Predict the structure.
Amino acid sequence: MKFQFHGPVELPNGKTTSTDIPKHVFQIAIALILLTVIPLFINRNSHPPLMPSPKIDSDQYGLGSRGFEKKCDIFAGKWVPFPRGPAYYTNETCNLIIDQQNCMKFGRPDTEFQKWRWKPDECELPLFDALQFLELVRGKSIAFVGDSVGRNQMQSLLCLLASVVYPKEITEKYTSDNINFKHWFYADYNFTISTLWSPFLVKASDADPSGHSYNSIMNLYLDKADEAWSANITKFDYVIISIGHWFFRPLMFYENNQIIGCYKCQQENVTALTHYYGYRKAFRTAFRSLVSLKDYKGMTFLRTFSPAHFENGDWNKGGNCVRTRPFTKEELKVDQYIWEMYFTQVEEQRAAAKEGRKRGLQFSLLDITEAMLLRPDGHPNHYGHSPQRNMTLADCVHWCLPGPIDTWNEFLLYMLKGEAQTTFGRKLQRIA
Ligand SMILES: *[C@@H]1O[C@H](CO)[C@@H](O)[C@H](O)[C@H]1NC(C)=O
Ligand SMILES: *[C@@H]1O[C@H](CO)[C@@H](O)[C@H](O)[C@H]1NC(C)=O
Ligand SMILES: *[C@@H]1O[C@H](CO)[C@@H](O)[C@H](O)[C@H]1NC(C)=O
Ligand SMILES: *[C@@H]1O[C@H](CO)[C@@H](O)[C@H](O)[C@H]1NC(C)=O
Ligand SMILES: *[C@@H]1O[C@H](CO)[C@@H](O)[C@H](O)[C@H]1NC(C)=O
């Protein structure tokens, strides 16, 4: 199976995020929250969260029950002006920005979108410190598993680290597919970054053997983890999982090698299921595989759903993203499907965290959805190019570099530091 990377062409169906939300959406969201979140929320302060996400689990870092200092919820906050941005690099100082995300190179006229930083409500999010990051990951490896938005975060990380050191690309040592799989090695730190292409996490194939188009059906084997990642994942210390946008295309769902239903396949003899059904099962299968892989000792992050911001039409009907500033919380209108994608994946992550804990595995959230909902200005729109790209389509799914996606790696560093303290705390306990 091979997917080609053609910029936003590969993303079958973004949706608009700007339509008015009917009241019932809030009711559904609130019902979901009541069912899944409230017990974890008792300690939150009075500020009503924009997106009341279930992230403050006192045990997210394995710390709460041990009486260590409670961590700040870095994912609830707001964007504040940062006039001297971009904070870390430009298209001139980092030469690893790919054309699809190199918005300045391709003529994006405004720069204000690079001049904001995320301010958590309860604390400060430190600037990304490349040296500190590299020391923390010395001798280790990170895999980004998922689709091209996950790769987008990897590209951001490469540029954030480039102020200290450039990696050597070692992809060809492992694979001839150097588009969908990439491996970078930092010799001075014996540190590896990889991207493993798996836009569904489960085994998938084109229903039409001659390839796929925007609206062709993909077969998903919902109970089989995609070997593109699962066959080689045990050697990684950190695994960042993320999927989403491929689930809006027509899908045929298999379990036990039998068709059990489909999404948008338009076959009357096949049961219609929602894409949330497949999305949930894909996470469940992926997380269960990780828990059951005996040699896997890594820390798993679910990077939550990254919202698209098409306005003025759907992704293939002239939709675009021309804004140049973040939304304020008052301006923000969120489509129901984003909440549903989010809660679906977070519920599966919680179940995995519980199972994983039994054998000492950590499953954490890189909970970017709320922050990124506020950044309609962060996408390439028409200022990202790739050779095969149909330029009449805007890319409101990926994120410009530099840009707000750099914040994801600030979050990541913060969490790695938290993890380091946990390990230290555990060591202390062992010694005591
Ligand atoms: C960087 O962007 C500027 C526009 O801001 C452009 O003139 C320049 O050619 C770009 N340089 C590279 C190396 O992409
Ligand atoms: C580099 O890290 C790997 C684990 O990722 C380890 O097996 C190896 O011994 C390390 N090499 C050196 C030279 O420290
Ligand atoms: C797993 O890694 C090995 C090399 O370490 C490579 O030969 C193989 O193709 C990889 N498997 C997959 C499914 O990517
Ligand atoms: C549904 O019907 C079509 C033709 O009408 C057939 O090709 C297909 O195999 C059927 N699918 C199932 C799951 O029975
Ligand atoms: C590009 O996309 C537009 C809008 O979907 C479509 O009308 C046009 O035919 C496409 N062009 C090519 C060359 O695929």
Notes: The first helix runs from residue 23 to 36. The pocket of 2-acetamido-2-deoxy-beta-D-glucopyranose (ligand 2) is lined by residues 139-141, 190 (CB under 6 Å).
